[in-house]
Amino acid sequence: MTLLLAPMEGLLDHSLREVLTQVGGVQRCVSEFIRVSGTLLPDKAFLRVVPELRRGSATRAGVLVRPQLLGSDPACLADNAAALAALGAEGIDLNFGCPAKAVNRHRGGAVLLDEPELLLRIVAQVRRAVPAHLPVSAKMRLGHLDDSRAEECALALQAGGAGELVVHARTKLQGYKPPAFWDRIADVRAVLHIPVVANGEVWSVQDARRCREHSGCDALMLGRGMVANPGLALAIAADQRGLAAPAPISWTQTLSMLQHLWNLTEAHVAPSHRHGRLKQWLNLLRRSQPAAQGAFDALRPLTQPQAVDQWLAAQISEQCLAPAMA
User: Fold this and answer.
1) Statement: residue 326 has pLDDT above 50
2) Whether 211 is catalytic
3) The last residue of a domain, from among 187, 221, 240
């Protein structure tokens, strides 16, 4: 079974990818979108979002990372895809799923699902612009305001040359509110001959089972579920192989990962924003780690990096002392 790691703008960037892929279970990541609008971006713009390009388009754990482009100009997207290919990208992914109003207002993301003919032209030009051996994939939602054109859009992406399609099982209008309509992914999958990856509302092994049953997909993309439970991919992989469930991620392990993320963000996140990354992650970790609530409450008033350093050091020291005192 193939498990992909989704991006999350402002949280699941290259730093958190680094941390989560070291846990294991994920076969490939997709980067946060690189916005393309009328110009060929310099290499530094690509490397800022996907520094893994310096390491063969992979994290330090060896998990491949596929850069994702977002835009509506076929020629410009093609030029930037070619530039990414020259930098050693593992492949090119195209974003037709972002529901953000600011993105949609500038003809990017899910709003393009109202224009299947444009989807085809974008993918076709990108496909022609990159070497034949490099995969070109796409991600879409079920639609913009409704899902009436889901199959038409998927067929357009396939006709343009996409070799794989991730389908987020909601429309732009439905946002991220439960439920995800996995049955509609099955409808899309039925009209295609390329691999389809199911995405949306997979928070547990049981969700993964139901998603596979309803969508018919053997590949899943994990986003918030993996951030909330870093051991989710390993647990799903073990379940699919009929193996015993791996031990849950402990709070001591989680603190180590929080420290690792904190260290990684120092190089590229402004000091005034670094603490926000930890708080965002802890907010989701509360779903799988009871101790995360207390940590979230303790970190909430802290804004200075030195204060966060001290808090992390104290928490890790406390966890190290606990076994000796038991």
Assistant:
1) no
2) no
3) 240
